[in-house]
Amino acid sequence: MKRSFFVYIFVFLVGIGFSEAQVRFEAKVSKNRLGVNERLRVDFEMNQDGDNFNPPSFEGFRVVGGPNQAISNSYINGKRSYSKTYSYYLTPQRRGKFTIGQATIQIDGETYKTTPVAVEVTAAVERPRDGNNAEYVASENVHLVASISNTNPYLNEAITVQYRLYVSNDVNLTRGFREIDTPKYADFWSQTISNRGNFTVYDGEYNGRTDYRYIIVQTTVLYPQKTGKLTIEPLTLDVPIDVETNKRDLFGRRLMTRVNKTISAGNRTIDVKPLPANGRPADFNGAVGDFSFDVSANRTALDANEALELSIKVSGKGNLKLFDLPSVKLPSALEQYEPERAENVSTQTDGMRGSISETYTVVPQYKGDYPIRPINFSFFDPKSETYKTLASEEIILNVVNGPVTSTASTESSETTKNTVTVLNEEQFKYIKLNANLKPVEKEVFFKSGLFWSLLGGPFLLIPLFIAVGKKRRKRMMDVHGNKLRKADKLAKKYLSEARRSMGDKAVYYESLQRALHNYLKAKLAIESSEFSKEKISSLLLKKGASQDNVDAFIEILKSCEFARYAPASNVTIQQDYDKAVKTISSIDKQLVL
């Protein structure tokens, strides 16, 4: 009997230890039956810590809050009690019977699952209108409103959506609210200006009641990109609200209870008007707003092959980031490079303000005066509902020194074409009317000398083709020789224009300098505005050219600069040409590209 008692005690203690060590993971719901206008809370609770928690899909419901995580860890009489909970807040999407599916988690390498829970969603239930009910008081005294500056804008006209949270004096609102669902603005260009952490409280009116105050939760600037009726999705917040109860503390003050409410601003619809077709300029590029336009050059007097910057700038208020600037068309004698775009735009509560600009690098090639014709910029002004066109001033570029383009001399030498006057029919007397024509004798081509020559000639050329092919293959396999020949050919190609101008010293050195610059453009991928002797030396050395060749190249550039203002003989010109050919050829053999 005594032995049986100890056996029972042992089995009891082992059972207690086993029950304490058993993992528990279960799902709990706040209610199994709720109205379609109510909210459901689902808790996934475990008694041991785990990893890789995976919730169910919550089919038939919309998640408006969560996951919120709560952990409880305590020791009572030397025994540890642990609890970890993941909480979700759901709103039903329709009536019917639904199942909260299985959630999974991994604890100590094992995967555990919750038991599915059945929930029934009924028709909307009447919410209690008891002034003592905290849920009712909170819903009646806190409202989220989307205020739109213009519900009937033009395409690409800025509108502002301001989300205001109205709170009556009957409740208190903390700053612990958070966004549950943020609008996507699919048909708009949008920029959000958040007020988070810097709220200002304003006195306001809601539905005729003046005992409200409000804060601006968020301001969003929108530029509609489509016409017609567009929907602005709602902003949804989870808001903790402190509501007074009928209970009082020891000092007679009313106690507060906290209620979490899900508040939405609701969908808003705007009607976007298309831009009018009447009066639309041909060069209109989508600019909407109020702008100013300017075209300027940093210099208007320069020499050939020197660079200037041509800037096109639009300033003002409007959709600055959503249109392209007018393009520039320059005379063919002005070399034009791709523009650099710069934006100095800030988005404020009434839209984008600032400026955008494009700067072109322009390099004139010849001496002369070149006009940059006025450039037009068109935009639509939504205030006056009219199109406006701004034109820049004409800019004259005066290229003082440089080669003269052949186009000008050709144009000046054109002679005036005179109409030939027919005096009488005597002018046709040179045409012979009585021709003494003789028939051509027919000659048989087949088996003639020409026939046998054409037939046998190709066979006689075969040995010649074989010999030429062998010589060509031998030449192609000569890598070093090909590199030398290619370098010499390249040098003569760039210097061909200078060679043709040896008779005119000024034109020759202009051509020689341009040839050297064009060689650098092709080999070093730099622009004319970046030419400096220090940078050229650095890039050539970096690409593998020897110091002697780099020094020789720089010396030739200096000779070109000074030779135009100093006397030079034909011998000196020929020596400079030979030196340039040799230097370019030597550098091209060494460059590693």
Question: How would you summarize what this structure contains?
Answer:
It is built from 9 helices and 31 strands. It is of the alpha+beta class and 593 residues long.
What's the CATH class label of the largest domain? Mainly Beta
Described by strand count, sense and barrel closure, the largest sheet is:
5 strands, antiparallel
CATH architectural designation of the largest domain: Sandwich
CATH overall fold name of the largest domain: Immunoglobulin-like
Bin the helical content: 25-40%
Structural class: alpha+beta
Mean pLDDT: 81
What is the count of structural domains? 4
The outline comes out as: elongated
**How many angstroms does the end-to-end distance come to?**
100 Å
Low-confidence stretches: 16-20, 408-424
Number of helices: 9
Strand content: 35-45%
Explain the overall architecture.
- By secondary structure, the chain is an alpha+beta fold.
- The protein folds into 4 domains: 13-122, Immunoglobulin-like, CATH 2.60.40.740; 134-272, Immunoglobulin-like (Sandwich); 290-399, Immunoglobulin-like (Sandwich), CATH 2.60.40.740; 479-590, Four Helix Bundle (Hemerythrin (Met), subunit A) (Up-down Bundle), CATH 1.20.120.
- The protein is built from 9 helices and 31 strands.
- It has helices spanning 2-21, 134-141, 406-412, 449-477, 479-500, 505-524, 533-542, 547-563, 570-590; strands at 25-29, 33-35, 40-46, 51-54, 61-76, 79-92, 96-100, 104-107, 110-113, 117-122, 142-148, 159-168, 171-173, 178-181, 188-194, 202-206, 209-224, 228-232, 236-248, 254-264, 268-272, 289-297, 301-302, 308-318, 334-336, 340-348, 351-364, 368-372, 376-381, 386-391, 395-399.
- Strands 11, 12, 15, 16 and 17 form a 5-stranded antiparallel beta sheet that branches. Strands 22, 24, 25, 26 and 27 form a 5-stranded antiparallel beta sheet that branches. It has a 4-stranded antiparallel beta sheet with strand order 1-3-6-5, with no helix packed on it.
- Strand 26 (340-348) and strand 27 form a beta hairpin.
- Helix 5 runs antiparallel to helix 6 (505-524), helix 6 packs antiparallel against helix 8 (547-563) and helix 8 runs antiparallel to helix 9.
- The protein is elongated and about 130 Å long.
- The chain starts with a helix and ends with a helix.
